[in-house]
Amino acid sequence: MSGRIEARLAELGITLPAATAPVANYVPWAISGKLVFVSGQVGIQDGKPRYVGRLGDGMSVEDGYAAARLCGLNLLTQLKAACGGDLDRIKRVVRLGGFVNCAPDFTDQPKVVNGASDLMVEVFGEAGRHARAAVGAPSLPLGVAVEVEGVFEIE
């Protein structure tokens, strides 16, 4: 379907990646009432992990930001599937949870997860502003640098 959000993605030069299948026993998204819960998305691009490594241990904040943005794109892909292909059904981004694979002394998790947060505001405008957590983790699935999950309100 084409609509306001699809037009905004095109204006931003964004093409959503193909949806990735879950890597364990869970579903990529679940709807409860007017909320869509999207499972944690990692930086998979073209079927392969794109940003592998640890922040503060050889990986820059800029690379982490790009990894979080890719996670955000993968969130949007799953969200589009949950909405039957119509991203205009999104009323607002409620919450994002970001997990950063990092060294114990790394403290810039919020700057890294901004990659996903900034994307949501670019795409949805004021409706993209959300509550958020950005936490460090000693490791993440597939060795990726970042994982982001989200909760979205739909009409």
Pick out its properties.
single chain; 155 residues; alpha/beta; 60s Ribosomal Protein L30, Chain: A; 5-stranded mixed beta sheet; two-stranded antiparallel ribbon; 3 helices; 9 strands; 30% helix
Element layout with pairings:
Blueprint: H1 4-11, E1 29-32, E2 35-42, E3 44-45, E4 48-49, E5 54-55, E6 58-59, H2 61-82, E7 90-101, H3 109-124, E8 131-137, E9 146-154
Helix pairs in contact: 2-3
Summarize the amount of helix as a percent range: 25-40%
Return Rg in Å.
15 Å
**CATH fold node name:** 60s Ribosomal Protein L30, Chain: A
Q: What does the average pLDDT come to?
A: 96
User: What spatial form do the alpha-carbon principal axes imply?
Assistant: globular
For the report, how would you describe the main beta sheet? 5 strands, mixed
Annotated CATH homologous superfamily:
RutC-like
Q: Based on the structure given, which CATH architecture is correct?
A: 2-Layer Sandwich
Q: How many E strands?
A: 9
CATH class: Alpha Beta
% residues in beta strands: 25-35%
Which stretches are poorly predicted, pLDDT < 50 over at least 5 residues? none
Order of helices and strands: HEEEEEEHEHEE
